[in-house]
Design goal:
Distance between the termini: 108 Å
CATH architecture of the largest domain: Up-down Bundle
Largest sheet: 3 strands, antiparallel
CATH topology of the largest domain: Receptor-associated Protein
Number of strands: 3
CATH superfamily of the largest domain: Type II secretion system (T2SS), domain F
CATH class of the largest domain: Mainly Alpha
Helix content: over 70%
Strand content: 5-15%
Number of helices: 15
Number of domains: 3
Order of helices and strands: EEHEHHHHHHHHHHHHHH
Structural class: mainly alpha
Radius of gyration: 30 Å
Strand order of the largest sheet: 2-1-3
């Protein structure tokens, strides 16, 4: 009869203990267990006489981000390279982290390793934090005995990918924030300011100019249906995000539309190609076979158009087609990428060539974002000036008209 392998309970608690060993020397440490009795019995078997046990209470902590994982990877790589034992490295990083969620995660992984799991197996139990690409690279490092070097390469990869994402977010954030602010200011003017002018103008008894009547009509609509306007906007955004999560067709449509946007589209395309080539270069340099590498590359690109194209490339490569030809058939890469890939395949230095391509497109993203930031400032100022200035002029036209009539 087959026996069931006992897996570590991830709901165990962390206990900080203190005691004396067989030489009467004071020793301290931490252990994950279901209760104090388990800690005492485990330590007793190790010849430790426990004097105190205290449950470590970890706060809820914030969500674990990609930056947290990148920092952990860099720290772990540095410590392993310095000769620090794996479990000790996990202890140091966990205790020194400011986010309790990361501390809990690392202690769970450490417990898995202590109970006989490999590092890769421990990581694979947390797919939300460690994706297939991450685990495949760690596995390659464990098998080849170069875990510290692979973790350092993985940390560099994550840092570069995060830098590109940050550039894209900064390019999108400024105009989005300004437009949202402009809408809120306009809504406040329409709901609270324009009605005051309307009451004032009604006492004049004179005909109002066309622009003023138009602004007042829009103001009446805002006052009467403000809850529909705001509810429709926020509800529409929420429903769109829910539909986007569930519908691959909608994701494909939006990602393809994003790539075709003027100015922004080219930045997104360059960033996607940079992530794609950087991921493939990192995987291939780690010794992961090309077909297996492509399995992780599509998802890492961050764009479903390139994800689906990568699946086609993978299918062709698995049947014997060379990478350059498969990429040409996908029709989503510029000639420069395919030329560099072809040179890399012919010279046996594919990872090096792909890294150079990634460097080039990352620099293109940097330059485009800087240029866009310089361009957006005057454009946004003109738009805001026209909007707010138009409202002000429209509301002061009757006053100017009355002043001219009195002076006449």
């Amino acid at each position: 009869m087959a026996t069931k392998t006992k897996t570590p309970n991830l709901k165990d608690f962390t206990f900080r203990w203190e005691g004396k060993d067989r030489t009467n020397k004071i020793v301290k440490g931490e252990m994950r267990a279901s209760g104090e009795a388990v800690v005492k019995s485990t330590l007793r078997r190790q010849g430790i006489n426990v004097t105190s046990i205290k449950k470590v209470r970890l706060g809820a902590g914030r969500k674990i981000t990609e930056l947290d994982i990148a920092m952990f990877t860099r720290q772990l790589a540095t410590m392993l390279k310095s000769g620090v034992p794996l479990l000790t490295a996990f202890d140091i990083v966990a205790k020194g982290h400011s986010n309790p969620s990361v501390t809990k995660l690392l202690m769970e992984i450490k417990t898995d390793i202590e109970t006989g799991s490999s590092l890769t197996q421990a990581f694979r139990r947390h797919p939300n934090q460690f994706d297939a690409l991450y685990c495949n690279l760690v596995q390659a490092g464990e098998q080849a005995g170069i875990l510290d070097a692979l973790l350092a390469r993985l940390a560099t990869y994550k840092e570069k990918i995060l830098a590109v994402k940050k550039k894209i977010k900064s390019a999108m954030f400024y105009p989005t924030a300004v437009l949202v602010t402009a809408f809120v200011i306009t809504a406040v003017i329409m709901i609270f300011v324009i009605p005051a002018f309307k009451d004032l103008f009604s006492s004049f008894g004179a005909d109002l100019p066309g622009p003023t009547l138009l602004v007042m009509a829009i103001s009446d609509f805002f006052v009467s249906y403000w809850y529909i306007i705001f509810g429709g906007i926020f509800g529409g955004i929420y429903l769109f995000l829910q539909a986007w999560k569930k519908s691959e067709k909608l994701q494909f449509f939006m990602d393809r539309l994003l790539l075709k946007l003027p100015v922004f589209g080219q930045i997104v395309r360059n960033a996607t190609i940079a992530r794609w080539t950087r991921t493939l270069a990192t995987m291939f340099a780690a010794g992961v076979p090309l077909v297996e590498s492509l399995e992780s590359v599509g998802g890492a690109s961050g764009n479903i158009v390139y994800k689906l194209a990568t699946q086609k490339i993978q299918a062709e490569v698995s049947t014997g087609t060379n990478l350059t030809t498969a990429m040409q058939n996908a029709n989503v890469f510029p000639n420069m990428v395919m030329q560099m890939t072809s040179i890399g395949e012919e010279s046996g230095s594919l990872d090096s060539m792909l890294s150079k391509v990634a460097d080039y497109f990352e620099e293109e993203v940097d330059n485009a974002v800087e240029a866009l930031s310089s361009l957006m400032e005057p454009v946004i100022m003109v738009v805001l000036g026209t909007l707010i200035g138009g409202l002000v002029v429209a509301m002061y036209l009757p006053i100017f008209k009355m002043g001219a009539a009195v002076a006449g």
